[in-house]
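Here is the promised in-class demo. Please do not try to memorize the tokens; focus on the logic of going from shape to residues.
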């Protein structure tokens, strides 16, 4: 479908549908920015108010990610039984209510580490429901050629939040205190709930679907991912990326701050180059996929830029820092590109009745890959040294195009709703 045809499709859609798309993007954008700001504001609250150390901040990180591993599959199965918009609104309200308790307790001098961990755990559980619901709801909201473009908008917002969210959180914490930033986040979640409440789109009904045992429905989602060739490829490629990124983000700060003697600001600028690359990848994804063919674009972009990840373990010895930063930016461009195109592939091949279960299965596998990448990178660094372990993580990223080359994904031609097109 040409760009002019798509613009015509957008222009001729009912005004209510166009407003719904804007409302959905606004609500999801607030949630994405809130997640990135919280990555900094919550640990800062622990450190500045409770004087927590590394063990405390690590516990908070675990409390945030554990719900995705434990609840991803059953929540995904349950969401295939119900309407998702009320779940998203409820999750926003729960997150807002939990966050409000932190600054209140801090201002009255009653905040404890157990309280903060409990709030983060509630945040994590509510975010499981919100994320899986919103990933499934979007196909009902914007079917057809607008689906990849909506995914691109969301990815662009997410990449922008990834770049600007943490420094914004640090600046606001210095200006207002970290608990006050959490209060602002709570207001953002309430704002998101208001926008979601204003949606007029009707979801595809699931009330007439035969009900089975929850475990059986979970198994159907897992089995569909296992036997569907496009989804298998998305899982494999995405897991390889997550293992590589987690390993690099675990080891690179250690290399930069200890061996290379960088300042934290220097490290932040280097990582920020990756954020800019990811943003460019998300912005350009739909246009490149339309021009080259979706599957061919995934393969060609991977072959062209993913091998540049090997510059990271050679950082400063012998690869100069500016050159390594450029390589990192291009690698993250690939990640941003895939976040749009591979998600759209996933939505195209998944029936509506299985959408939440597939998303839940994917989230569990991808979160597990992050945990595996971080843990294995740390263990490998102890055994073979920091740069060699970093090299293994970089090799994962460098080879991410291989599963695409060996799968039917490389023959997918178009992004959009309905059955995929194969050459």
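The designed amino acids, position by position:
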């Amino acid at each position: 479908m040409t760009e002019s045809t798509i613009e015509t499709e957008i222009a001729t859609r009912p005004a209510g549908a166009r407003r719904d798309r804007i409302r959905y993007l606004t609500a999801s954008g607030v949630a994405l920015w809130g997640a990135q700001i919280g990555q900094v504001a919550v640990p800062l609250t622990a450190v500045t108010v409770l004087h927590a150390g590394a063990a405390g901040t690590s516990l908070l990180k675990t409390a945030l990610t554990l719900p995705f591993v434990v609840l991803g599959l059953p929540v995904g199965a349950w969401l295939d039984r119900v309407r998702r918009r009320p779940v998203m609104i409820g999750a926003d309200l729960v997150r807002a209510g939990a966050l409000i308790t932190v600054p209140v307790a801090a201002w009255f001098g009653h905040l404890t580490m157990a309280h903060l961990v409990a709030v983060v755990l509630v945040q994590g559980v509510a975010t499981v429901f919100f994320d899986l619901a919103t990933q499934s709801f979007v196909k009902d909201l914007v079917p057809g050629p607008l689906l990849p473009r909506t995914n691109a908008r969301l990815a662009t917002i997410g990449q922008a939040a990834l770049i600007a969210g943490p420094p914004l959180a640090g600046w606001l914490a210095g200006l207002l205190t970290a608990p006050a930033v959490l209060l602002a986040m709570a207001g953002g979640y309430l704002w998101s709930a208001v926008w979601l409440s204003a949606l007029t789109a009707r979801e595809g009904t699931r009330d007439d679907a035969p009900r089975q045992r929850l475990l059986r429905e979970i198994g159907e989602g897992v089995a569909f991912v296992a036997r569907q060739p496009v989804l298998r490829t998305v899982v494999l490629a995405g897991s390889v990326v997550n293992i590589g990124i987690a390993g690099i983000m675990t080891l690179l700060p250690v290399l930069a701050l200890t061996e290379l003697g960088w300042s934290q600001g220097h490290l932040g600028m280097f990582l920020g180059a990756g954020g800019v690359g990811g943003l460019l990848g998300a912005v350009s994804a739909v246009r490149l996929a339309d021009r080259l063919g979706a599957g061919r674009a995934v393969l060609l972009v991977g072959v062209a830029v993913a091998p540049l990840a090997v510059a990271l373990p050679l950082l400063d010895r012998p690869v100069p820092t500016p050159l390594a930063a450029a390589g990192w930016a291009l690698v993250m461009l690939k990640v941003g590109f895939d976040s749009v195109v591979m998600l759209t592939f996933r939505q195209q091949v998944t029936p509506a009745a299985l959408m939440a279960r597939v998303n839940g299965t994917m989230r569990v596998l991808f979160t597990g890959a992050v945990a595996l990448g971080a843990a294995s990178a740390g263990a490998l660094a102890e055994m073979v040294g920091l740069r060699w372990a970093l090299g293994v993580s970089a090799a994962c990223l460098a080879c991410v195009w291989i599963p695409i080359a060996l799968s039917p994904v490389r023959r997918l031609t178009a992004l959009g709703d309905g059955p995929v097109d194969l050459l």
